[in-house]
Amino acid sequence: MKAVILAAGEGSRLWPFTYSKPKVMIPVANRPILEYVVRSLVANGINDIIMVVGYKKERIMTHFEDGRDYGARIDYAVQKKQLGTAHALLAASKMVKGDFVVLPGDNVIDSNVVKDLLSADESPCALITESEIPSKYGVVQIRSGKIADIMEKPEEMVGNLISTGIYRMSSDAFTRIRSHSRKGVHDLTSVVRDLSSSDDVLAVHTSGKWIDAVYPWDILRVNETVLRDIGEEKSGKVEKNVTIKGPVLIGEESLLRSGSYIQGPVVIGRGCEIGPGTVIYPSTSIGDNVRVSANSVVEESVIMSDATIGPGSHISHCVIGEGAFLRSRFSSSSSTATMDVEGDFHKVRDIGSFLGEDVFCEDGVVASPGAIVGAKSRVSAMRVLRGTIPDKSLVV
Prior knowledge:
Elements: E1 2-7, E2 27-28, E3 31-32, H1 33-43, E4 48-53, H2 57-64, E5 73-78, H3 85-90, E6 99-104, E7 107-109, H4 111-119, E8 125-130, E9 138-143, E10 146-152, E11 161-170, H5 173-182, H6 188-198, E12 202-205, E13 210-212, H7 216-227, E14 233-234, E15 237-238, E16 243-245, E17 248-250, E18 255-256, E19 261-263, E20 266-268, E21 273-274, E22 279-280, E23 284-286, E24 291-292, E25 297-299, E26 302-303, E27 308-309, E28 314-316, E29 319-320, E30 325-326, E31 331-332, E32 335-341, E33 344-351, E34 354-355, E35 360-361, E36 366-367, E37 372-373, E38 378-379, E39 384-385, E40 388-389, E41 394-395
Parallel strand pairs: 1-4, 1-6, 4-5, 8-12, 14-17, 15-18, 16-19, 17-20, 18-21, 19-22, 20-23, 21-24, 22-25, 23-26, 24-27, 25-28, 26-29, 27-30, 28-31, 29-34, 30-35, 34-37, 35-38, 36-39, 37-40, 38-41
Antiparallel strand pairs: 2-3, 6-11, 7-13, 8-11, 9-10, 32-33
Helix pairs in contact: 1-4, 5-6
């Protein structure tokens, strides 16, 4: 059986971390979200994979190539214009025959999710799960084990069972997708709702790990959840008088300086340097080639690859983008903040700041809880960052 992974979208609500990469390539626990999908398919014997790519497709294709490193055979279909999920699936229509699995590439899943779908051994079927915030998704109504209706983001509470966007279909479904497309309807939910009105679409419940990242602060929640299952491996160099507690992964050629303190779960990538007197608290991921300088504190944060954290910094509940350079005494504490994402306001608890890729901060910068700093921005010394700052800004 083949799998089609929909990975063409931008994920604009996760700005500024989609400035130069699609949502599916945002790292959690030092792996792109899309990699969790690929590994879960391969673990269930599905090795023949088609990725539908579009926005910044080169980042995906360069990372996965032909799939050999993941035990898979990966081909690519291009969605030239991102109109919707059904439109994306249509881009792969000539590459599949018979039954196939279709999955979004922007959800972290484990192998049990795919296992549950395959256990149904029936097509068409839709994978459903429970959600504490069903109003963000398509809420499913079930009758006699079949999909009766899918209500997209209902304003009123009508149930907590949601569609994961993971389906098992037959290639016959493309006829219906094309029919919808001619009417200007390009979302897969509408196609499945139409299928359920004339055919039996089996509802398959999963209790496996299925986590969606919609907003920047969701990266922290997903990262924390994934880190709960990490093991322990120390491939780098650990100097004397370093304290390590709990599960910690340390990549090759990384160096932990004397006097540093690491409390897992924590993952540290390859080629990193953790300075003397630095403290890293649980639920923190540090990418490759990151330098955290002396006497800094990092807690419950995601520091992406090639970033530099200057001495005496304090980073709490933050996401720091690739290549960011924060000079000495950068400070970002966490608290409750109201955040504006594309005109929608969200009250978020225990949140720090979000700095896009290649942000440069001079000495003594303070980022208020909820601050979002766009990619490639430059911040002068001793500035206080608040609210949303566009890409390539100069803060003086």
